[in-house]
Specification:
The complex is a heterodimer of chains A (about 240) and B (about 450). With about 240 residues, chain A is α/β, with parallel strands linked by helices. Chain A has a single domain, classed as Rossmann fold (3-Layer(aba) Sandwich), CATH 3.40.50. Chain A has nine helices and seven strands. The longest helix of chain A is centred in the middle third of the chain and has 29 residues. Chain A is globular, with a radius of gyration of 17 Å. Chain B has 13 helices and 22 strands. Chain B has an eight-stranded antiparallel beta sheet, with helices on both faces. In chain B, helix 9 runs antiparallel to helix 10. Classes of the chains: A alpha/beta (about 240), B alpha+beta (about 450). Chains A and B meet through helix 2 of A and strand 6 of B.
Chain lengths: ~240, ~450
């Protein structure tokens, strides 16, 4: 299996890549930090994977996306799975009054992904098969007071994927939207963890099964589908008074 | 956040740091205020307070492999990798960890810090005797490579040093070739303590040996056991096995563990073992890690947690010391679920390593007020016999118990003063034991 991972050093991407490495997958990995990409490459190799290449890239420099992805495609010849995992949890309170901060959060979490998807879509459709999997968030299901900027960015990606899925489907390409709940990772280091928190390894297992069975949208852990069903059915006149 | 280790006692409020790389760990140590002591923590599988401190630095994300030389069997990995993960990578290439403790979920860093042992100590020594080198992050913020030849004092102080010399960042381990993943197991049922000792002595050449005792049997039956011997069996597929089956979802009410249920369990376990075939061929997973198949088994002891009491006594004193301990425990009606006796080989040069020539007995007890006086009585027996307690299991021993049991503590203190004069690294345990300066706990 040939896998292209964007945002490969994120906790969820790393855990997923390790599971695929055990199945002797081949990887091309993109991330922000060259040293961490190299370390991940070594790790995946020891675990049974094969590293085809790495590219260090600032995802918000969308002008560089085309070259980076073309290089990856040329190196890999064909791609079975492309996993987009990069993202960053912004400081909501700063984003509320500071447009620059909000814009930067939306750039990282949404616009950079859309830029990637535009290019990947063309490459995958030309190839005529494969899966594009994108990690979004349950935060995109409904805007909540403590993180609606992040939520809005993720919602943009999920909504985009719904249309994109239909477009590439006609060309044999599958699209998977992964919505993790609360994940205990370096991105969420500043939060006190409670019983609803889960490990990146749990999400990684769900991703493997979602890819294998060609699911469209997965919540991970699965009970988040029910939680979000409840959250989205709360009437607005109550919801606007809720601070969670 | 509130932290505790495997025995779920004691608990403390700690600031938990989870650096995502060795470089990030280095930055954290450099930025650390000297007021609060800091200790490294792996999987939290030590039992007491050795991985608890006001500031705890977790190796959770130092979990990458760096290299694996399949020809020589040398694996280089981050300190946060679990032994299970090492086995997962090593086994398909027909390599195996030479020393494995009773749980596969411990990390490499933790295994070095506690210098853990396995059922083959009498043959292969401790975990650290198979460590080629490791990278240690010092209080000064620099990293040094330590091996028996390179920085030997730091190497021998850090192996078994409970994290007090610095933070182990990564390590190179020498693996052993294995003929297969199954174990040729022989079980001998013994009727009393003398027979149990004989069983272990007579089979001294067996690669793996251990005895599970019925700790509530009294009188003539005192010390009856099932002695398990094992050798690697040849053949079969080189397949790693997870084997996780049941999980204990929450702490069970502690009253479920009482004299009666314990007696029933111990004799049921004993009879069950007696009935099973004397020769069998289990997978290494069930041979080495029987308890790992029950996730969170520590919750069985209730919300008060439990204490494990593991001591070693020299061979000549072993019979009388161990029978005294078993009698005391049985009289107090405080039986432990699993009571394990093991013969140790020679001690190594590591300053605070636990194993030394003789016998080690492990008992576990649910935590209750009346337990502590009993453990003090057991301490007296252990000290009088020239023995000592295992730091990785300890949550309560006294400073004098440590200093009498570990004569090298002074050499360790000198090393500590040299590499960490400001006592940046320290745990609740090291403060209790007078290995680092006492400080205010917030």
């Amino acid at each position: 299996m040939k896998i292209l991972i964007i945002g490969a050093t994120s906790a969820i991407a790393k855990a997923t890549a390790r599971l695929y490495a055990e199945q002797n997958a081949e990887f091309f990995i993109l991330g922000r930090d060259e040293a961490r990409l190299a370390a991940l490459g070594d790790d995946l190799t020891v675990r049974g994977g094969k590293l085809l290449g790495t590219t260090a890239l600032d995802f918000t420099s969308t002008a560089e996306h085309k070259d980076a992805l073309n290089t990856a495609f040329e190196t890999m010849k064909s791609i079975d799975l492309s996993l987009i995992c990069h993202g960053d949890l912004p400081d909501q309170s700063v984003c509320e009054s500071n447009y620059e901060a909000a814009l930067s959060a939306i750039n990282v979490n949404a616009l950079s992904t859309l830029s990637m998807l535009g290019i990947l879509g063309e490459l995958f459709m030309e190839q005529g098969n494969g899966t594009i999997a994108v990690v979004t968030s349950v935060a995109g299901d409904r805007g909540r007071q403590p993180n609606y900027v992040y939520g809005a960015a993720k919602a943009m990606v999920s909504t985009y994927l719904q249309g994109f899925r239909g477009r590439v489907f006609q060309h044999g390409v599958h699209v998977l939207d992964i919505k993790p709940g609360l994940v205990d990772s370096p991105m969420t280091a500043q939060f006190e963890k409670g019983p609803l928190w889960s490990e990146p390894e749990i999400v990684a297992k769900a991703i493997l099964s979602g890819v294998k069975y060609k699911r469209h949208t997965i919540y991970s852990p699965g009970y988040w589908r029910i939680i979000m069903l409840v959250v989205t059915s709360i009437p607005e006149f109550i919801f606007k008074r809720m601070k969670f | 956040m509130i932290l505790n280790s495997w025995g779920r006692y004691p608990q403390t409020v700690a600031n938990l740091l989870e650096p995502r790389s060795a470089a990030a760990a280095q930055r954290l140590v450099n930025a650390h205020s000297k007021e609060d002591s800091l200790i490294a923590r792996g999987a939290g599988r030590s039992y007491g307070d050795s991985a608890l401190a006001p500031v705890v630095l977790s190796s959770r994300f130092l979990d990458s492999f760096i290299a694996f030389d399949e020809a020589s069997g040398v694996i280089h990995c981050g300190a946060g990798i679990s032994l299970d993960t090492v086995l997962k990578v090593a086994i398909p290439k027909q390599w195996f960890l030479t020393v494995i403790p009773g749980s596969k979920f411990v990390t490499v860093g933790g295994a070095i810090a506690a210098d853990v042992h396995g059922k083959n100590h009498h043959v292969d020594g401790t975990f650290c005797q198979h460590i080629i080198e490791f990278t240690l992050l010092l209080a000064s913020g620099e990293t040094v490579i330590c091996s028996p030849a390179n920085n030997p004092e730091l190497f021998h102080g850090t192996c078994g040093g409970m994290g007090l010399t610095g933070i182990i960042v990564d390590a190179k381990i020498q693996l052993s070739k294995t003929p297969g993943v199954f174990i040729e197991q022989t079980a001998i049922v013994t009727e009393n303590l003398q027979e149990t000792f004989n069983g272990l002595e007579e089979n001294n050449t067996s690669k793996y040996s251990v005895a599970w005792l019925d700790c509530l049997a009294l009188g003539d039956k005192l010390g009856r056991s099932a002695v398990y011997l094992g050798e690697h069996a040849t053949g079969g597929k080189f397949k790693h096995k997870d084997g996780l089956t049941i999980s204990v979802p929450f702490a069970t009410p502690a009253f479920l563990l009482n004299k009666y249920s314990m007696t029933a369990f111990n004799s049921a376990y004993f009879n069950l073992k007696k009935a099973t075939a004397k020769k069998s061929k289990p997978h290494y997973n069930s041979f080495f890690f029987p308890l790992d198949n029950i996730r969170h088994w520590n919750r069985l002891y209730g919300s008060n947690g439990f204490l494990q009491y593991q001591f070693v006594v020299p061979t000549e004193a072993a019979h009388s010391a161990i029978s005294d301990v078993l009698k005391k425990v049985a009289e107090a009606g405080k039986g432990s679920f699993l009571t394990v006796l093991k013969k140790f080989g020679k001690a190594n040069k590591n300053l605070l390593s636990f194993p030394k020539e003789g016998y080690t007995l492990t008992l576990d007890f649910k935590r209750e007020k009346s337990l502590f006086p009993l453990l003090l009585e057991l301490d007296d027996i252990v000290l009088a016999s020239g023995g000592r307690l295992y730091l990785a299991k300890d949550a309560r021993m006294s400073e004098s118990m440590l200093k009498k049991g570990y004569p090298e503590w002074e050499a360790f203190a000198r090393l500590k003063a040299q590499v960490d004069p400001e006592n940046i690294f320290g745990s609740l345990q090291s403060q209790r034991l007078g290995l680092t300066a006492k400080q205010r706990i917030r």
